[in-house]
Amino acid sequence: MQETRFLIVPLLQGFFWFxxxxxxxxxxxxxxxxxxPQSMVMINILSGTVRPSDIARNLGISRQAIHSTINQMVEMxxxxxxxxxxxxxxKVAALSGMGExxxxxxxxxxxxxxxxxxxxxxxxxxxxLHKAFAADWGAPPLTPEELGIAEPAAPAGKAKANxxxxxx
Length: 168
What we know:
This protein has one domain (8-141): Orthogonal Bundle (Arc Repressor Mutant, subunit A).
């Protein structure tokens, strides 16, 4: 992994390591190609986020993009859309029977990947990762003041872009 002082880089690299390994192992089990967005939808559903608008918000993409991804997954047989028990006007995504079978293979693959990572970096490091990620991080700071830093002046290019946008 690339060395950097920014924690977000190895976090993302670690996610890619797991997702790439998961996708390869699922393909070896006979499941077709699953894209990273489809994988992210599955992770959201398995962690209890089932409304397409909430999944889109979590992934930072448009509702149209998430509906396109979910529709692909429905066509592939991985998901089904059900009436939202809390709002009859809405639908929620759920694993289909095939999606449940895929989840079982995915769980086995993630366990195997976790065991391999423990072999590579040590069980103590895996335990430390679990402990750090299970800790209560609180809400993310959303302003420079929450971080105790002064708000920097906008770069000249940004100021020009903002001025043009205001004139429109």
